[in-house]
Structure formats: structure tokens, C-alpha cells
Please model this.
Amino acid sequence: MGHASVSLAAGSSLHAAMLSRDALHLARSRGDFERMNRICMPLLEAQRAIRLDALAAGPAKLISTGDDLPGLPETGCYLFAPMLVGADAKQFRAAANAAGVSVFVLTREPQMKNGLWPVCGVGERVVRIRIQPPTNPDLIDPQWFSYASEQLGDQAIEDAQNAAEPEDPAAWRVDDLLDRIDACPEHEKFIKALADACREAMAMPIPTIVRRRALINDPYSF
Model:
């Protein structure tokens, strides 16, 4: 986290975000919820800078086949569309980040009969919303892209909350959010919800029983 703070101060938002994410998972592996809580704020700041830089780059680039994938990706927004799926978008983001390029990625699935677009994000759990498509589906403006991302992150928080039972240990609620962080890494309210869950878990004993969660029954999933 010391290196992440230096990177953030120097304007290296992607490096700061990646270090923060590594630190977050390391702290969780040690049951250190106090440190996880402290990591969330620099992570939020780094992801905010990544999101704003991508949105400032202009309309999203449409990626619907392997041939559309740029050899050298640039900072910006990317909307993956059929025939590609959410897992392809996640892999693209990971590859771009590994190359030192920050990208803001969403995936839309085939349009529904009612005209809505399913938009998904992939983490350990898949998060999915159904929203109105943009006015011009061939020109995805930053405003629609940002709106879709906000709706996806809000759904991720709701999904994590709905996964829990009232008697569940607080640590499990942290894990329910971590399951979905890769689905919406740019969402500020999601990271704040994670920090809140970590603060709650700080005062509670670490559970000794294994967390169990049911499979998601989504008729629109693949």
C-alpha cells in the first residue's frame, strides 16, 4: 500500500489500483478487515481516475468479434457485444492492464424481445442488468456508458446483500462483495459498500465455518 500511495500521488492510477487490489486480497487472506477498510479509499481514488480518463477519451469502441480487438489498446471505453461475452471482456481488461493500459469495459448481451439490453460484468459472480439501449446503438456515448456502469454497480451491491442471511457472519458479507468486485471495479458506491462491510467485520470474530452460497438461477444467463 505504500507503493500504491506513491503511484497514486504520481498520477499512476492503474498501478495504484492494481497494487491496492493485490493488497486487498492479501489482507482478506489474513482476516485483516481493519487494513482492508483502509485500502478501500486509495482503491476508490485510483479507480475513479481510471474511469474519468476513459470517459474523457470519447465514445466507446465496439468489440463484437476477435477481429475488432485492438493490437495495442488505448485508454478508453470498450463495449463488448455478441458474439463476444463477459468473460472475453474480463480477459481483455486483464491483458490491457498487464500491458499498462487502463480501460473501462462493459459487455452487452443479445437484445431482448422487449428491446432492452442485458449488460453484464463478470467476477467470481456474474452481475447483470437490463436497460434501455442508447439512442444510437452504433455510437455509444460516454453518458450512456457511465449510466450503464452505475446501474451495474448498484445491482452488484444489491446482489451481494441478497446473497446473505441475517445470521451470516459479517466476514461473509465482505466476501459476497469481493465475489463481485471484478464485475464493477470502477463503481465508487460498491467500494464504499465494501469498506462499510469491512468495518462491520472488524468487530466480529472470524468465522470458522465455510461460507456456502446457492447457485444463481438466472434464465437470461449463458
Summary: Residues 59-202 form one domain. The helical segments are 2-9, 13-29, 33-56, 86-98, 142-163, 170-178, 188-202. The CA atoms of residues 39 and 183 lie 19 Å apart.
